[in-house]
UniProtKB/TrEMBL annotation:
It comes from the Eukaryota. PROSITE patterns: OSBP (PS01013). Coiled coil: none annotated. GO terms for biological process: intermembrane lipid transfer. One of its GO terms (cellular component) is cytosol. Signal peptide: none annotated. Pfam families: Oxysterol_BP. InterPro entries: OSBP_sf, Oxysterol-bd, Oxysterol-bd_CS. This is Oxysterol-binding protein 4. One of its GO terms (molecular function) is oxysterol binding. It comes from Friedmanniomyces endolithicus. The gene is kes1_1.
């Protein structure tokens, strides 16, 4: 089922009261999504640290640009890969769960580690909650066989006006070793549709920019049902040489369609280059260590008791198990304050400047790093990763072989 196909499904009668109280409570809501209290039936057992995996569920598409010698085609393949991630990022939960649910709010230091193994070799994932206030998740995804590295971090700022509107802060950076090329990717704002009916789904707003250090930029514009296109999850993209956004003659590729179904990429002569079908593209399953072999900071181990309680629909146990995690976190923060120490992030570090991204941001209209909203700029720290000790069991060997 694609995102939102459940649209119009009424809230089950036993949940109607809690849903309307929830709607009333969020009408005055502004800011931090983690402070939102949602009714039991809309709680997810998945933490936001797991969402980083959505960037690479089709590793073949992520690594494809690394094997394309033509710079324009390479930038187009980066656009294709990015568009292919949208359904995973923003609609896959509707498919699995029937509607968008409220994810678990990660604690500081929470980790999600895994790998995809397929014809492209091993593609590794490290995701870490690097800040709790504001909530910020950082991730690194890399494939040494193809020399492809993606890293990024994100936070969300929410406001309420008829529905929940979310501004994403942070960015992603894709690096292709062979061409020593970087692509800055901005994150689109979004809002929640069908909130009133109790079958929420995500619709994307405004634009994403993908700025390549090879001189090509892609701009993707989003629209939904209430817009001129009238189509749900619609997208329209152009790829052009830097600085020529307004010049229609300069467009090298266009992409049109929907991110939950089909989009087509055409060249400047309007010849179809490729058609992508989001429903048919095969995914590679992510391998995660069995829970008993995970580190206590790993998300599925840390949240297991909460997740079990949610699955059983036991709200009292859900609440008390969440309190156990929250109190442990409070005690840790207290201890750190007393020792004048800061929590040591296991895989990422805060940096003052990230020149590669700053330079590429110059080609994003109105774009900036917004480091003040993400508790700093976060980068994957190879030194930390190399020294990361088991029990990061599934990954310890791969981490030693780190990036390059
Ligand atoms: C807004 C959101 C949490 C944040 C999710 C983000 C932005 C996280 C980073 C990923 O890379 C992309 C992504 C996808 C979906 C975003 C979620 C959709 C809904 C969720 C809200 C906190 C839930 C609102 C509650 C309810 C009941 C309406 O679903």
């Amino acid at each position: 089922m694609a995102g939102g196909e459940q649209e119009g499904v009424a809230v089950p009668s036993q949940n109607k009261g809690s849903w309307s109280s929830f709607l009333k409570s969020i009408a005055s809501f502004n800011g931090d999504l983690s402070s939102m209290t949602a009714p039991a039936f809309i709680l997810s057992t998945t933490s936001l640290t797991e969402f980083s995996a959505y960037w690479s569920e089709m590793p073949g598409l992520l690594v494809a640009p690394a094997n394309e010698p033509d710079p324009q085609k390479r930038a187009m393949l980066v656009l294709k890969w990015f568009l292919s991630t949208l359904k995973q990022q923003y609609a896959s939960r509707n498919e699995k769960l029937g509607s968008e649910k409220k994810p678990l709010n990660p604690f500081l230091g929470e980790l999600f580690l895994g790998k995809w193994e397929d014809a492209e070799g091993e593609t590794q994932l490290v995701s870490e909650q690097v800040s709790h206030h504001p909530p910020v998740t950082a991730y690194s995804i890399w494939n040494n066989k193809h020399g492809v590295r993606l890293q990024g971090y994100n936070a969300q700022k929410a406001t309420f006006s008829r529905t929940i509107h979310v501004k994403q802060v942070g960015h992603a950076l894709l690096h292709l070793d062979k061409y020593n090329e970087d692509y800055l990717i901005t994150l689109p704002p979004l809002h929640i549709e069908s909130l009133i009916t109790g079958s929420p789904y995500v619709e994307l707003n405004k634009s994403t920019y993908i700025v390549g250090s090879n001189g090509y930029t892609s701009r993707i514009d989003y629209s939904g049902k209430g817009w001129v296109s009238g189509t749900k999850n619609a997208l329209s993209a152009i790829m052009y040489p830097h600085g020529q956004e307004k010049d229609k003659q300069a467009v090298i590729y266009t992409a049109d369609g929907t991110w939950t179904d089909t989009f087509t990429i055409k060249d400047a002569k309007k010849n179809t280059v490729l058609t992508y079908n989001a429903k048919r593209e095969p995914k590679t399953p992510l391998t995660v260590a069995p829970i008993d072999q995970q580190d206590p900071l790993e998300t599925r181990r840390a949240w297991k008791r909460v997740a079990d309680a949610i699955m059983k629909g036991d709200m009292s146990a859900t609440g008390s198990e969440k309190t156990v995690i929250e109190e442990r976190q409070r005690a840790l923060r207290k201890q750190e304050a007393a020792e004048k120490k800061e929590w040591e992030r296991r895989f990422f570090s805060r940096v003052d400047r990230l020149p590669v991204s700053e330079k590429l941001f110059k080609d994003v209209p109105g774009g900036s790093m917004d480091a003040d909203q993400t508790g700093g700029i976060w980068v994957f720290d190879q030194e930390k990763a190399r020294n990361a000790r088991p029990p990061f069991s599934a990954l310890s060997e791969q981490l030693k072989n780190g990036w390059k």
